[in-house]
Amino acid sequence: MLSSHDDHLVHQTSAPVLQPANGDPAFYERYYATMFAPDASAHLGFGLSVYPNTGVIDAALSVSRDGVQEAVFASGHLPPDQRVSHVGPLRIEVLEPLRSIRVVLEETDGLAADITFVAESTPLEEQRLIRTRGTTVASDRSRFVQFGSWNGSFSVHGERVECARWHGVRDRSWGIRRQATAADVASKSIKPIYAVWSVLHFPDSFLQTTVHEAPDGVSHVRMAMRAPRVAPDEVETNAPVERTDDVRVGITYRPGTRRPKTARIEVGPRGPMHFTVEVEPRTTFQMMGLGYYHPERGHGRDHGDDSVVRESWKLEELDPLTVNTVHAQQLSVVRRSDGVQGIGIFEHIAMGPHQPSGLPEGLAPAQ
Fold first, then answer.
1. Interatomic CA distance for residues 329 and 263, integer angstroms
2. Per-residue pLDDT averaged across 149-156, rounded?
3. Could you tell me which of 276, 227, 271, 280 has the C-alpha nearest to residue 248?
């Protein structure tokens, strides 16, 4: 099937652009974004995904503040021209590629948002993640992350919150991803995964770390990237950044949970960076609010056309040791070993055994 994309010099295979080179139903493309208040009082996340091989598009926006997390989910059938970037009341607009995007949620049962991201770093290309489960490909995806600031506002039950230079990131990912998809959640079995993803804002730079490990601690991905702050008009694609795969993450879990109480990120000494970062979590954002491991709104599930759902949770009432809730982000105050303080997101998921952490089978807490 042809589209306007086919009139540009962008083809990667002999097929039309809209025809994926891989027929795997888990093939996807995703926009993801997160923003948070400089005083750590609120945390907002957004995601929009398309699944060309199953004809589904879905999106979600969620806000965590004052111990309550609110969410709107939308899904529908992907139209023939897959340039669409909206579903139901949710949409994303690329205002300037790799520099600015806009996220909008039209008012839905008391939740609304209109926020714009402006880049303040080069886009950071992560190491390609390839992970298998026996003979099945669990993940084969690429992703880039970009730091910046958010402006605009959101409203919750009539209370309008202005966002002026809130911190945050946006990312784009694509490839095969079975983790947290509808089929993955529906299987009812625990699929082992251990991952840390942190995006940290410091006054002088940005730090992004990614660690994926097998149950025995062997790495699938292990990397850290540090980028300088730049003005939006100085953003350059593929500008040099500091990188190393010499990264270790140590987590102290809250008793009886798999939720970090504190964490330490050690970067270097091999490579261009050598320091540690102490992580002090303050608030929690359940990734279920964006569809990850959600029992009904898992990524890629076909709900027919124009399906919109509104949900909310009191965070203290959620059991942190369920398949749906073990995956979470924590808005954290962070301190570098040179004394510089920052703020950022520490995302963690640990399902199944992880020998270096003392985590047993299933979702039992650390021993």
1. 13
2. 98
3. 276
Per-residue pLDDT tens over the stretch 299-356: 999 999 999 999 999 999 999 999 999 999 999 999 999 999 999 999 999 999 999 9
Convert the pLDDT of each residue in 116-148 to its tens digit.
Answer: 999 999 999 998 888 887 888 888 889 999 999
Residues with Cβ within 8 Å of 1's Cβ and at least 6 positions away in sequence, in order, are 16, 18, 19, 80
pLDDT score at 132: 83
Residue matched to tokens 């004052």: 66
Residues 6+ apart with CB under 8 A from 292: 180, 298, 299, 327
Q: In sequence order, which ranges of the chain are alpha helices (DSSP H)?
A: 182-186
Higher-scoring residue by pLDDT: 29, 134: 29
Q: Which one-letter amino acid corresponds to residue 367? A: Q
- The Cα–Cα gap between 291 and 61 comes to 9
Q: Which of 84, 10, 27, 336 is nearest to 74 (CA)?
A: 84
What whole-number distance in Å separates Cα of residue 247 and Cα of residue 269?
9
Q: Extract long-range pairs of 255-260: CB within 8 Å, 24+ residues apart.
A: 255/365, 256/321, 256/365, 257/320, 257/321, 257/365, 258/320, 258/321, 258/326, 258/348, 258/350, 258/359, 258/363, 258/365, 258/366, 259/284, 259/320, 259/326, 259/328, 259/330, 259/348, 260/330, 260/346, 260/348
Q: For residues 38 and 3, which has the higher predicted lDDT (pLDDT)?
A: 38
Per-residue pLDDT at 4: 76
Q: In the 3-class helix/strand/coil scheme, how is 58-117 assigned residue by residue?
A: EEEEEEEECCEEEEEEEEEECCCCCCCCEECCEEEEEEECCCEEEEEEEEECCEEEEEEE
What residues contact residue 134 under an 8 Å CB cut-off, 6+ apart?
none
Residues in the chain: 367
Tokens of 341: 């303080």
Q: For position 183, what pLDDT does the model report?
A: 66
Q: For residue 269, say if its preceding peptide bond is cis, omega within 30 degrees of 0.
A: yes
Which is nearest to 199 in space by CA: 129, 126, 292?
126
What does the pLDDT read at residue 367?
76
Q: Is the pLDDT of residue 294 over 70?
A: yes
- Name the H helices within 148-307: 182-186
What is the distance between the alpha carbons of residues 234 and 347, in angstroms, rounded to a whole number? 29
